[in-house]
Amino acid sequence: MSEATQKPVPVELTAEQKEIIALELEAKRLEVQLKRQQLQGLELEQKERTYHIQDLQARIAERELREKQLQEDRTSQGRTFAQDEAQDKLRWRMCTHKKGGVVTPRDLRVLHTGGNKEQYAVIKHQMINGDIWVLCLRCAKTWKPPVEKDFFFDKAGKNVAPQDGTFNRERFEQTQFEYLQAVNFNTNNSMSTSVQCRFTAIENGKAFDAADKYRELVSQSNLR
Ligand SMILES: [Zn+2]
Question: How far is the CA of 113 from the centre of ligand 1 (A)?
């Protein structure tokens, strides 16, 4: 074996070569650093996207919850109105609207269902326009002149505004008939009155009786 192969002579690098190697190393380091930063950037973007999605999800969930709450409020409100109405109608049907009957501390029913005397347990009140309204003192049902615009119904039979349904003459006339009966209920209670006024409206220079307008305005009220 030659001396040269036995002991490798350390190669002396020139200054220039050393510099090149150093520069190459530096370049590689920078490259790695750049890659790392790119990666970090991507990770941050990814994180940002995740947070953004989470924010959106939270906002949507909150909104859905609000919508649901609103929907539930509406439903339960509707239910309460419907329940009250059904209860009223049942009470009105059960009541004889008459005086008499025996009330005992253990049975107060007659106060709500009416008695069996000839006389009716109603008060009649003359409204400001001359209309007579009748109120049952037992079940609180109020009879008043019906107004045509309250007798429009849609296909499902729901009471709607005139422009959304058709006029039910039969129901209107039935209500009018019941009203006239109530006005004629025999009672010794005296009628109460309001100050009497005639309602007049002027349209196209002509005056006309506006009692109907007044009726429409008070059609949703009762004497309770
Ligand atoms: Zn009654």
Answer: 6
